[in-house]
Amino acid sequence: MNRRDFLATATLAAAGLAATTLPAQAAAPLLDRTGQRIKLGMDNFAVRALGLKGRALVDYAANLKLDTLFITDLPALGSLELTAAADLRAYARDKGIELLLGSWSICPTSVKFNRTWGTAEEHLALGLRLAKALGSPVFRVVLGAREDRKTPGGIEARIEDTIKVLKSQRSLAQDSGVKVAIENHAGDLTATELVSLIAGAGQDWVGANMDNGNAVWTLEDPLDSLEKLGPYALTTSLRDSAIWETPKGASVQWTAFGEGGCVDLKAYFARFAQLCPGVAVNVETIGGFAIEFPYLEAGFWEAFPKKPAAEFAKFLALAKRGKPVPKESLSDRERQEGELTRSLRYLREEIGLGLKS
């Protein structure tokens, strides 16, 4: 079956069921430094076009023989009632799926903050209670996006505002037994900046949701970002990236795993196994578009006034060996299901991830 036929077949899958049965993994299992196999899962944002919620999402993950399901937006639960979250926990347990929970910005001064769930403090408190009911050991949140880097006071001011919100709910988090995972999200935080946020809030209960795709949006090599964030990682949302030079700087397009052509994925996951024991690899493929970073133009570096030259040099090395990604005429559903399925196949066959096969 060629690629287009495969994608066409994928669209016929019923909502909540996976597009196809994945092949058995071929690679030897990759073990972390404790000798344990690494869990393989998905971030529900990878298949957002399907509109799945609650049990339908769990069924989808179970049919793909995944170990974890990372529900990263609260509406995808299907209900914000604690009893409903507890019921979903039991349903997922019966399907052999471990649930993780997340939501969005808790920085009240971020350009991405909205009051759908109340104040920043109320949003965080709601997420912590839902995570406990769901059986999730973590609650993922974000600061904002790359636009925050040029707001008054810069990213440092947004970090301080986020730390204040986090500290307001420390007792609730500790009483709930739930840790908070801050994501390096959409170009808002470099790895070094995220580490400073974690340290300011308290590493005993705050860590990182590590996103290697977002690392390249802050002009970082994902391997370099891994070295810095790996020791703090509680959860992940991962994908591959293509990076190539342009007349103005470089462009980045996220891809399915194994299709970016820039990052040494075997080296990445070998190091991941050493730095992140017990942390699941959750696939969050987001393809179909490229973003240009015009670092050769005046004004660009206002957003990154403290970028270390050595760090940027590693990103440049990736861009110099990368190539643009061919454009495809696919529906959102075709692209999302295809990228997720190909990523899972690659991670099983080439890297040796997952407890199931």
Would you kindly provide a brief summary of this structure?
The chain contains twelve helices and eleven strands.
Extract low-pLDDT stretches.
Answer: 1-21
Q: Give the strand content.
A: 15-25%
Distance between the termini: 21 Å
Q: Name the quaternary structure.
A: single chain
Compute the number of helices.
12
CATH architectural type: Alpha-Beta Barrel
Encode the helix/strand succession as letters. HEHEHEHEHHEHEHHEEEHEEHH
Give the C-level CATH assignment.
Alpha Beta
Whole-number average pLDDT? Answer: 93
Note down, in words, how this protein is organized.
This protein is an alpha/beta fold and 357 residues long. The protein has a single domain, classed as Divalent-metal-dependent TIM barrel enzymes (TIM Barrel, Alpha-Beta Barrel). Helix content is 38%, strand content 16%. It has twelve helices and eleven strands. The strands form two sheets. Strands 7-6-5-4-3-2-1-10 form an eight-stranded parallel β-sheet, covered by helices on one side. Strand 5, helix 7 and strand 6 form a beta-alpha-beta unit. Helix 1 crosses helix 12, helix 7 packs parallel to helix 9 and helix 9 packs parallel to helix 10. The longest helix has 20 residues. It is globular, with a radius of gyration of 19 Å. The chain starts with a helix and ends in a 6-residue tail after the last helix.
